Amino acid sequence: MFESYTIKDIAKALGLSTSTVSRALNGSYEIGAETKRLVLEYAEKVNYRPNPIALSLKEQKSHSIGVVVCEVANDYFSQAINGIESIAYNRGYHVIITQTHESFDRESANVQHLLSRHVDGLLVSLSAETTDTTPYKYLHEKGFPIVFFDRVATDVNTHKVIANNFKGSFEATELLIKAGFKKIAHLTNSINLLISRERFDGFKAALDKYGLDFNPGYLKHCNHGGMIQDEVEFAIKELLDMDERPDAIFIGSDRLTINSMHILKKLDIKVPDDIAIAGFTNSDVAELFDPPLTVVRQPAFQIGQIATELLIKTIESKWPVEDFITEQVEIELIARSSSQRIR
């Protein structure tokens, strides 16, 4: 076992008061250069490390960040979390990750738990069920640092980091139209989420540009975002059973896109012969599907990094932060065989 030295031990060894040692370790201007040198050299010699629990009690800071996402087993969020941790770790913060599984009640419980752990701030991506953001407004108004990413709360005036959802959806739908598909369905997440509305707007704008009518029957919402396989399968079967079956589907979220490919294969529907597919996903195996999958890819790692930088900047600000930004990052459309018409 390593012997753990305290400020009292250093003060006793050097014949100084504990307050002098504490101020010297913190670089206070009240302490002379020679005293600082003696204290720092001795602290290094005995491998002194501040007690994080004592520090958090004294400073009311835990040097930890709470993260709220729908699920970790999601290609987008796993990459975003890697981005979050890459910044937080290097800045001396621990990361506590919680999952909502698209439940508002679980999200509320997670936030309460994180607050009870005295996290210094929150990085939040809302659940599909969340429509009441009053708790976040309350925390924000009290000065508690919150940054939203991906699934953001429009009515909480704080930092937000998003992808260009409209552009990604427009370009993917336009790609399908230019490939010759005219009857394009849209499978997406809960209407509660701003990203669902933005992605629908991009989809609809592409149809409008090329003079294609929007068929309301072609719009299917999966409120659990692909986490319940039967929900996705039911939506796809409804589309396939229509008298005027769609010839392509644009899919608006990561897990929905991957699950749809599995379900279509199970139903013996050939892509793109029977129906073409393009969708949002950050899956690293999208190009290994049969056929390779056309995707809208978001810079999830970068989004996680930007959100964390903004949060830590807010946490460490010496003055109340009043100016907030919404950072929008660009998507990448990767065209592959799943969206090409077989000639």
What would you say this structure looks like, in words?
The chain is 43% helix and 15% strand. It has 343 residues and is an alpha/beta fold. Helix 1 (7-14) crosses helix 2 (18-25). The longest helix is centred in the last third of the chain and has 17 residues, at 300-316. It is elongated, with a radius of gyration of 26 Å. This is LacI family transcriptional regulator. Keywords: DNA-binding, Transcription, Transcription regulation.
Which labels suit this protein?
343 residues, alpha/beta, Rossmann fold, 3 domains, six-stranded parallel sheet, 12 helices, 12 strands, elongated, LacI family transcriptional regulator
Largest sheet: 6 strands, parallel
Q: Encode the helix/strand succession as letters.
A: HHHHEHEHEHEEHEHEHEHEEHEE
Low-pLDDT parts are: none
Helix content: 40-55%
CATH homologous superfamily descriptor of the largest domain? Response regulator
Topology of this structure?
Elements: H1 7-14, H2 18-25, H3 33-45, H4 52-59, E1 64-69, H5 75-90, E2 94-99, H6 104-116, E3 121-124, H7 134-141, E4 146-149, E5 159-163, H8 165-178, E6 184-188, H9 194-209, E7 219-221, H10 229-240, E8 248-251, H11 254-266, E9 276-280, E10 294-297, H12 300-316, E11 326-329, E12 332-334
Parallel strand pairs: 1-2, 1-3, 3-4, 4-5, 5-11, 6-7, 6-8, 8-9, 9-10
Antiparallel strand pairs: 10-12
Helix pairs in contact: 1-2, 5-12, 8-9, 10-11
